Amino acid sequence: MHLSLLLLLLLLLLLPPCLSQSIALLQFKKSLTKSDSLYNWKDDGSNPCDPNNVWVGIICANGIITTINLSGQDLEGQPDVGALAAVDSLKAISIQNNSLSGPMPQINRLRSIKAFYADNNWFSGVIPSDFFQTLGSLKKLWLQHNNFSGQIPKSVGELPNLKELHLEYNEFSGHIPTFPEADIITTLDLSNNNLHGEIPKTLMKFDAKVFENNADLCGPKLSKECKKPSEQLEPPTESRSSIKWIIMIVVVALLILIILARANQIEEDKRPLGKGGIDEAVVNIPTVTKKSTTSSANSSNNNNNDVSSNITKKDSSRKGGGVGDLVMVNEERGVFGLQDLMKAAAEVLGNGGLGSAYKAMLGNGVSVVVKRVREMNQMSKEVFDGEMKKLARLNHQNILTPLAYHFRKEEKLLVSEYVPKGSLLYVLHGDRGVSHAELNWANRLKIIKGVARGVMFLHTEFASYPLPHGNLKSSNVLIGLEYEPVLSDYAFHPLLNNTPTVQCMFAYKSPEGVNVSQKSDVYCMGIIILEIITGKYPSQYFNNQKGGTDVVQWVKSALGEHREKELIDPEISSSEDEEDVREMVKLLHVGAACTESEPDERIDLKDAIRRIGV
Ligand SMILES: *[C@@H]1O[C@H](CO)[C@@H](O)[C@H](O)[C@H]1NC(C)=O
Ligand SMILES: *[C@@H]1O[C@H](CO)[C@@H](O)[C@H](O)[C@H]1NC(C)=O
Ligand SMILES: *[C@@H]1O[C@H](CO)[C@@H](O)[C@H](O)[C@H]1NC(C)=O
Fold first, then answer.
1. In whole angstroms, what is the distance from residue 424 CA to residue 439 CA?
2. How does pLDDT run across 461-508, given as a tens digit for each residue?
């Protein structure tokens, strides 16, 4: 699947960068026009949870932010609540009793939020009908004493865990939506709005006073009979759906405008840099997708690297220094330049914490992965070059070595070989390609052992690094044709240390958080082992841990109760071979020992390797 330029840029725009918590809080603060009370929210490297100087309104538990309480802090402006999506583990936000305004804050981006108090402000406008659809864990929603208008969003009635709902003193109009989940609601107030029509039967248990002072509500509760449905006022559905269409068209038009503006900006950005700016590669790759087949026609159609690398060499010398923009550190897969990358058919692979990745098929038949990393330490090209050459010298069957890089002050490009079956994440949870039958126990065991060997190798090579791998997760384990795994994205710590991006490395999601050590790699390896045996998508991979399965907790509790077999992926648990099942259970225990939350109680890598039986 080759994506169009628009889609490619759209992905870049829409996927949120991984922000560290303090950056997210500062972005929130920046959106306010008055925020004097947040005096110690500063961009000075301080930690919002620092017990000696905790940021105003921030409540932490074990060093992580759980609640933001800015109640009555004399704040003004339109708060960017969506920015707080980067604050993992945030459970409650209170911005009540301020002078905040604008539309409904974007809590729908905070999928694990349990309580949102925004009452007594100047929020206004219509809340989209499906706004609350993604907020399965929301329990308390206080929006009273604002100026919201339009219908009460239908999705609020469908929240599965809602206990408290305050919408009184707003301008809500229209019918009250149905509340199929009203059983568990303990507190409700819809009074002092402009609602009309029948009170849904599910809300009969509430007192009449929670409905009072509305335009024209009716029902047995208010001892007021409802008129027949035909006489009730309700905009015809047809006109509503055409409004929906108009809105959609406007939104799409706006997006296209934004994209064009950004594309222009990219053009401008690269102009002073002349040919070969990497944005050029990204912009041009998809547009020449069709041409690439013809331009590669003169390169032999087979995968013979020697022949084709000669061709690319000639090709780039003709263009004068195309190769020069890209520094080759490993020529095993041929020599190519930025021009060749630009001509290649490209495909977006995804946007990891560190940057975005593309797959490009070169004219010589070799597929490569191009990773853009925007934020790295300020370092000279020489230092960076030394680091890359060090990585390129590694030689281990479970380690992916870089082929080439491109250095620019503001971003770096890392090129490595594409591995046929893609990532382990994709092989385990993806929906196309790999047949699950091939994911039998023998292959899974091969992957676990290969990962362990790769990690062991890195810990020997980079024994002095705090994090010899640092970003070990299933999306960075690539799977070869014979199910031999290769690790990528390793040993980046020296390149990212002291930048906010470092926190995007998966090791920083281990329970020890910023206090990472070599044991953090062991934790990450444990997650992969549990992921492979259970076949479940670990919630640990999500920034807010909402979604997926908390494999650590699940495995821990099931092992405690000797329910091991329930944990094993049904696709392999039916194995007839007793020996296989014993091995699976044994490795579940190893995975659990690797993911102990206390680093001191966690086994070290040598123990893990020994117990895996590499
Ligand atoms: C926030 O603080 C106020 C007092 O300043 C308190 O009344 C309120 O309950 C707190 N809200 C939350 C969610 O902690
Ligand atoms: C809101 O703030 C005022 C003072 O600014 C205070 O008197 C009142 O109790 C606060 N209300 C709530 C709900 O916290
Ligand atoms: C509340 O919203 C209405 C429109 O729905 C507007 O006319 C009114 O001025 C708003 N009031 C305040 C105080 O913002």
1. 11
2. 999 999 999 999 998 999 999 999 999 999 988 888 777 777 788 998
